[in-house]
Amino acid sequence: GKVIFYDGQDRLLGDRIDYNLKTGTGVVYNGSAFSAPYYRISGERMERVGEGVYNIQRGVFTTCEGDPPLWSFRVGRATADLDDYLVGRDASFWVGKVPLVPWVPFFAAALRRERQSGFLFPTFGSSSRRGVFARIPYYWAISDSQDATISLEPYSKRGVGAGGEYRYILSESNRGIAQGFFIRETERDDRERGDDPENRGNVIWKHAWQISPRLSFKTDLNTVTDDRFYREYGDRLHERSQQRAESNIFATYSGDSWNLMGRAFWYQDLTVERPVELQRLPEIRFQAVRQPIPGTQWLLYEAESSFTNFQRFVGSEGRRLDLHPRVFLPLPVAGYFTLTPFVGGRATYYDRKVVGKRVTGNGGIEVEVTEDASHVRGQAEAGADLEARATRIYDVGGLGGIDRLQHLVEPRINFTGIRGVNQKDLPQWEPGGDLVNPLAPPLAELGIDRIGRVTRLTYSLTNRLNAKTVAAAGQEAVRWEPVRFVLAQTYNLNPSSVTPFSDLAGDLTVEPNKYFRFRGDARYDVVYGLGLRSVNTDISASLWDVTATVGTRFDDRANIEFVRGEILAKLSRYLDVRASTNYDVKAGTNVESRVGVDVHCQCATISVTYINRAAQGGLGRSEDEVNFSVNLLGVGQVGSRQSLSPAQSGAEKK
């Protein structure tokens, strides 16, 4: 039989144990140690050199049960502290009786600790564009407040790359993360390179510091070597379709009824060859929310102002100061509705004046030509809001677990009129859009520089259904909004308006329970009989162990018709299946599809994902990619490649 030896809370078994009662040292031959909660260490010779510390020859480490275990690391020599770590040399990784990774020089694992420096399990993949690739990560637990993941990432058709992520916590309210990826494309075919540089990569830095309950400081920096980097090295579709790499440094102070924000904002436009990006260095904004004027109970005011220094290499640049106060007088009328007339003014200072336009020689981009000319645009604003609310309560009597339903009907009318002086030859640094959105606040589509003569009437009707569940004894009832439906339209009263009526816009949200949610919005042309101009829908549903989402995007003006679907099914306790697709209906192209399986074992999870991506620009062959990753219980896991988006997160060793 086996000899059993208890070392504290840990249990060891061996063919033979030599133990010195005076020194507390000894040797376990052909021994096995079991360390809570799931660590298993064995070796031909396990020499006890201290309390819970062993020098091991020809050792095996795993968290699996069974003989042979599903996976294991074998080491020539190792030192194990059963309450802390295991460090070994001349290691190999085995799956069953097969040496999947024949040799690695070093292996380390944390025992009963969340963080321990060491190599994480390498991951592998194959891409028809980038070739066979691997990711060999090393996790560095620098201290209790900082750690890093550094990885070597070779691509057979591109070259050798490296990625890194550094995470730090300076205090409970002061922390950040820095990420980067670099590759030297020595193996890329020159015919495919085009204007792309040989050295490519990106750097991202995010930092958040809550200096006080009212004062905060944040940085969000994102820089990239070239316009096509994300399209070729991004993983998800939203990464590959990025049009800008934005950077922000800003500080915000929040008062009781006002906010002050200062920031430096710049970006790289990834869609044009000429540097026409308009940077804001700096921008200062002040906003006072609607509140009573001191000394009065019936007059309210709000204000917003900004100062911006616009800079760019190609095109107009300059400085702008904008002041916009407004005063409101809410008048309840017999308890049926509220009429709120308002007046306001806007003064906007510019230090430049537009004298013409030109087209750049490279890229053919139209830009403004300006000259020094200080001037102020002045505007007067007046209008009124008319709001009403009707409500009725329905006693459901517990049907479907609902006690009561409340139906609310909320009509609203807004009239806004603006007249001004010096409204010509203004630089269009912040023009906004052309499409009126009746669902948004009035004039929301107009940037500061495009606001001119305005005479608008916007009307909307909102229907809400609020629900309250039957409360169990000793519990609070749950309240939520199962249905919300809004219809809105804007009428332009300016005589020069070609199309006085905007599209009729609608927004619908249906959420009857926690298992189903629908949201959709649509715009319908009522002037030219063009019908639906845009439709967006999102549906999510969960039933048993299946979760599915479907989204559609249709915009006739932008020539967009897109469908996205995703499903995750837990077929058993051991197997998950997932799939997603992004289909461009207009082009008849499957932009990106993914199919994956996750196999869950007692001590590991194996994930395999197949990805098909359409050729860039619709030309050439599509890209096929296969990713393989393993999550070993008690050792750690890293995905098949590091995400490149600003929202990426790094791996942790567990």
Low-confidence stretches: 637-654
The Rg value, from CA coordinates, equals 32 Å
CATH architecture title of the domain at 3-110: Sandwich
What does the average pLDDT come to? Answer: 90
N-to-C CA distance: 35 Å
- Tally of strands: 38
Q: Could you describe the largest sheet, including whether it forms a barrel?
A: 26 strands, antiparallel, barrel
Portion in helices: under 10%
* Strand portion: over 45%
- Number of helix segments? 3
Structural class: mainly beta
CATH fold descriptor of the domain at 3-110: lipopolysaccharide transport protein A fold
Name given to the CATH homologous superfamily of the domain at 3-110? Lipopolysaccharide (LPS) transport protein A like domain
Broad CATH class of the domain at 3-110: Mainly Beta
What is the 3D shape?
globular
Task: Please explain how this structure is put together.
It contains three helices and 38 strands. The strands form two sheets. It has a 26-stranded antiparallel β-barrel. The longest helix is centred in the middle third of the chain and has 5 residues, at 229-233. It starts with a strand and ends in a 22-residue tail after the last strand.
Quickly describe the structure.
By secondary structure, this protein is mainly β. It has a 26-stranded antiparallel beta barrel.
